[in-house]
Specification:
This protein has 458 residues and is mainly α. Helix content is 67%, strand content 5%.
């Protein structure tokens, strides 16, 4: 491991890419400190903490957005929206690519088509940034819970212009930063920016454990509990890696072709089907969809405080609160796991490509029978993958309620953030491995099997 780390800095090209990547991430963290004009960051941070303790809608939105913005919404910096608008635009075009023939044709054109879709994604990102900035500023300006945060300027129009332009420019700059990392650095730029924001919250969680730690057992964290948390973290990370890399390998046989006196083909290979084909997207969709009933129930509980509404608000408010939220969370994860697999996985097109290349699955006829078999296999492994995603997603809530651990600490034992970090780090290590192997250097894994990292977040 140490030798591989030293070799990583001996390759000039790889060293320059790593230094460039670190410099871009440092710029991102510096921009994290620049506040929005006319907004009191200290008051906003305090309001977010109070709302999180009271399980309010403001705390729910801030916690969810902090996954993609590094906690910036709680401080309302120029990078407050993070890279979320760009991710939203990318997801929109991925979904439209399955229903619009024009986009499907562009996707099949190769690099030129993908470049055109990327240009459209950048253009759509700007209005999405403006809409999300307006929504966030409207909430800051009108909500009674956070009204002391906004320091009114002499002209109210200046506040809106500075806020919208600042948040939009920050997100567009992060989008450009991610593209520069893609071109001149190592790894997927957008995913690395998200990962840097998630990892940045870890020191605060460690300090929280340290401040409440006691050998005598008169505080929240005892030595036994800290050891249990460390072991659980290692086990969950190992399980996340297994799920991320898990595959169902379908054997593929190539047909033999005779050309003159030579026989070509006849080789055996396999078709890898990922167990977690949807990646982290089912958890993201499920979390974002459950924000709306949480906000609605929080509003209704304040206006109509009847027992039924209070019961729903207390049990369907946040993931660490009630069993109804967890049940709905698991159900939505399963739903979106199958939905995302249906959108991204095309068995008919895959069966057609196998047939056109002279390959087939032993025992199955090429064409519709192969497509039907692939669809059945994908349905079964998606059920297992969605179950593993659901377990990882609810682990923080279980640890929080069963062991009385702060949710900011237990959040690192599972959920969206952990899966994103694991997926991105696997891809990052894989790219470094490829750079080392090109120069005949031994990688991090020695002579063992290589890591099959996933590209980006999906």
């Amino acid at each position: 491991m140490i030798r591989a780390f030293m070799n990583m800095w001996r390759v000039p090209e790889l060293r320059n890419k790593l230094l460039f990547t670190l410099a871009m991430l440092a710029i991102y963290r510096i921009g994290f400190m620049i506040p929005l004009p006319f907004v009191s960051t200290d008051a906003l941070k305090e309001a977010a903490k109070q709302a999180a303790k009271e399980h309010g809608a403001f705390g729910t939105i801030a916690d969810y957005m902090s996954i993609f913005s590094g906690g910036n919404l709680k401080q309302s910096t120029l990078f407050g929206l993070g890279i979320m608008p760009y991710i939203s635009a990318s997801i929109i075009f991925q979904l439209l690519g399955t229903v619009l023939p024009g986009l499907q044709a562009l996707q099949k054109e190769g690099p030129a088509g993908h470049q055109k879709i990327m240009e459209w994604t950048r253009l759509v990102t700007v209005p999405l940034c403006m809409v999300q900035a307006l929504m966030w500023l409207t909430y800051l300006h009108s909500s009674p819970a956070v009204s002391p945060i906004v320091q009114e300027p002499l002209n109210n129009v200046i506040f809106w212009l500075c806020g919208v332009i600042g948040l939009t420019a920050g997100s567009v700059f992060l989008m450009w930063l991610g593209e520069q990392i893609d071109k001149y650095g190592v790894g997927n730029g957008v995913s690395l920016i998200i990962t840097a924001g998630i990892i940045d919250r870890m020191p605060y969680a460690v300090m929280q454990v340290y401040n409440d730690f006691s050998f005598q057992g008169d505080r929240k964290y005892t030595p036994l509990k800290v050891v249990a948390l460390a072991v659980a973290f290692v086990v969950v990370v190992a399980g996340s890696i297994i799920i991320t890399q898990g595959q169902r390998r379908i054997p593929i046989q190539q047909a033999k072709h005779t050309r003159g006196r030579r026989v070509y083909g006849g080789q055996k290979t396999y078709l890898p089907l990922r167990v977690n084909h949807g990646g982290v997207m089912p958890i993201i969709f499920a979390s974002s969809l459950l924000i709306f009933p949480s906000m609605a129930l929080n509003y209704m509980a304040g206006r109509w405080p009847n027992p039924f509404v209070r019961f729903l608000n207390s049990n369907l408010g946040r993931v660490e609160q009630g069993y109804l939220y967890i049940l709905c969370y698991i159900g939505l994860i399963y739903f979106f796991a199958y939905f995302w697999t249906t959108v991204q996985f095309q068995p008919k097109e895959m069966a057609t490509q196998l047939r056109d290349h002279g390959s087939f699955i032993p025992g199955l006829r090429p064409g519709p029978r192969t497509a039907e078999y692939l669809e059945v296999v994908m349905e079964r492994i998606t059920y297992v993958g969605a179950g593993c995603l659901a377990v990882i997603a609810v682990i923080p809530a279980v640890v929080h309620s069963a062991f009385k651990v702060d949710y900011q600490v237990s959040a690192f034992l599972g959920g969206t953030g952990l899966l994103i970090v694991v997926s991105v780090m696997l891809d990052f290590v894989q790219r470094i491995e490829a750079g080392l192997m090109m120069r005949n250097y031994q990688g991090f894994l020695g002579s063992g099997p290589r890591i099959r990292g996933s590209r980006g977040m999906s």
